[in-house]
Amino acid sequence: PIYLSLAGLQREANSVSVRLLALIPVAVAINLALSAAVDAVGLPLFLDTTGTILATALAGPVVGITTGALTSAVNSLRNPTFWPFVLVQLIVALYAWVAARGGWFRSFETAVPAGLALGVIASVTSTPISYLIFRCATTGGIALTAKLGQLLGLSPLGACFFGSFISDFGDKAVTFALVTSVLHALPRRTATRSWSGPAITRA
Prior knowledge:
By secondary structure, this protein is mainly alpha-helical. It is built from ten helices and no strands.
């Protein structure tokens, strides 16, 4: 079993090397590039946690959390609606920590369901933020799915949750599949020497 604790996080922090810290700017760049791409075409996806999940799987939760926080900070410079959702980035990093330790990235059969489960967690977390602060008027794709919820007769809060759920459910499944593909493409020696070791190599 996997136990999440402050002591465990402290041990991980002490083990982070300079080589692993070098992943942070790369992972942040991945998040920003994918986020800007889906924003540009108005897709009801985010993909802005791809680098966060990848960094966590390769280098541990400290690197993943740092990646997520920096992504939100930089993304907010072009779109201020991103910053309040930094909490989602942190939750994603912690969840990815569990997923990596549990070997859920070893196959798509476990990675995709794990991503779907994260989508539920992320939508429950993001809906209050989106509704209370922005009335669900955030990125274009999410606004469209929330509008669809309104057309279906849902209340404003219900429509907001519907929009977040539809987007997060698909987004996190796609993101986990992308990260799994990258991890499987790495040389086995590189993967086994990473923070998660054999737990992220192909089953």
